[in-house]
Design a protein that fits this description.
heterodimer; A: mainly alpha; Four Helix Bundle (Hemerythrin (Met), subunit A); about 75% helix; B: alpha+beta; OB fold (Dihydrolipoamide Acetyltransferase, E2P)
Chain lengths: ~240, ~150
């Protein structure tokens, strides 16, 4: 029953598929991000309350969304690797962690720059901000735990377990603004029902959102290739590939 | 039971266990995690009487009074059920205006006036061009907070 699954996830197969997918993701990301930036930063109207400062949303919201998306990707890949003993899962989890941490850092930094003029402070111990900071520390923990073991296989398993435990933080980040009184406003796009945004502002935001997701896909494919090559460096197919 | 099924159970068991314990912790510490109290909680005496805390609400229209030649400002906060008068000396954020959601940090005086030493402005999740906000206001539809 599971043979197709294992075959799909064999390292040489995954290595080749990642190579085939990366340029498509990259091209789609370039098109959407260029359109989103030009339309969002130049042509979209200023906000009725926040003026031009609201344009930080075009980088902040996609970064924050990707920080959660990358974490979930990492946890699911680690979980698959743990349950089905699929080594490529560990490679995907290891490749996703630094990308996700970068998006988290970008979300925190852009949010801080936005908070100063609008809220009146760079930082507040608000539930949304605090849980996003915990997300960053979870990424750091997963990255360092993987390297803390002599035996890379044990490091992979430990990091996958920590990633799975930390996945409870993902819904906390998302719903924090509804569960508690918070300084951060509720969701504009990622909510049930119609987005709370004028269409002229929404289209570039959606383009940025999908553009960031494609960018994540492209970088993930490239990093997964590196991880697989490193992990399989003793195997016959890699030796053949590099002509050694 | 196959080893794979066993590992699957262990993974989902860990997920379920962590989720349950976090849910319990969250329910137990609900108010400690919240960023502010609203005027109703203050009126019911749920806010700390002696310690500093944050209060959040809407600035009542027409309640903002400034002293000439001074940075002191008086206003009233409401959650449409209860009201709390606030006094603050300092620079206000750009988004502070009547009808706007704000959060004040300070202490509640014995006379029921909240003395704030920090005021933060909240903004909502709605984004629209100024023309749309103006026409909505004229039609009396969704009331923009300006």
């Amino acid at each position: 029953m599971w043979t197709w699954f294992y075959k799909l996830a064999s390292p040489p197969h995954a290595y080749r598929s990642a190579a085939a997918m990366a340029p498509w993701f990259l091209a789609a990301a370039a098109v959407m991000i260029v359109y989103g930036l030009v339309d969002g930063l130049v042509f979209a109207p200023p906000d009725y309350q926040q003026g031009d400062a609201f344009r930080i949303v075009y980088v902040h919201a996609p970064s924050a969304w990707l920080s959660l998306f990358a974490y979930t990707t990492m946890a699911v890949a680690g979980g698959i690797a743990l349950i089905w003993r699929i080594k490529v899962g560990y490679a995907v989890a290891a490749a996703a962690a630094p990308i996700g941490a970068s998006f988290t850092l970008a979300a925190l930094a852009t949010g801080s720059l936005w908070g100063r003029p609008m809220w009146g402070t760079y930082w507040a111990w608000d539930p949304r901000l605090t849980s996003e900071l915990i997300l960053l520390f979870l990424y750091f923990g997963v990255i360092s735990l993987r390297q803390a073991f002599e035996d890379p296989a044990r490091g992979d398993r430990a990091a996958a377990l920590l990633g799975l435990v930390g996945v409870v933080n993902v819904p906390i980040v998302h719903f924090s603004v509804y569960w508690w009184n918070s300084l951060h406003q509720g969701g504009t796009v990622m909510r049930l029902g119609k987005p709370h945004m004028a269409p002229s502002m929404l289209w570039p935001l959606l383009a940025m959102l999908f553009g960031f997701m494609c960018f994540f896909g492209a970088v993930l494919c490239m990093r997964v290739r590196g991880e697989i090559l490193d992990r399989e460096r003793q195997s016959a197919w890699v030796r053949e590939l590099v002509g050694a | 039971m196959t080893p794979r099924r066993k590992r699957m159970l262990v993974v989902f068991g860990i997920l379920g266990g962590v989720a349950a314990s976090v849910a319990l912790a969250v329910v137990a510490g609900r108010q400690n995690i919240s960023f502010y109290y609203d005027p109703t909680q203050v009126a019911l005496g749920k806010a700390p009487a002696t310690k500093r805390f944050r209060i959040g609400g809407m600035v009542v229209k027409g309640s903002v009074q400034r002293k000439p030649g001074d940075l002191t400002v008086h206003f009233v906060l409401t959650d449409f059920a209860h009201q709390v008068p606030v006094t603050y000396t300092g620079v206000l954020p750009d988004l502070f205006r009547e009808g706007q959601g704000i959060i004040a940090h300070g202490t509640l005086g014995p006379n029921g006036v909240f003395v704030a030493d920090e005021v933060l402005a909240k903004h909502d999740e709605k984004y629209m061009p100024p023309e749309v906000a103006a026409s909505l206001k004229n039609k009396g539809g969704v009331k923009p907070r300006t």
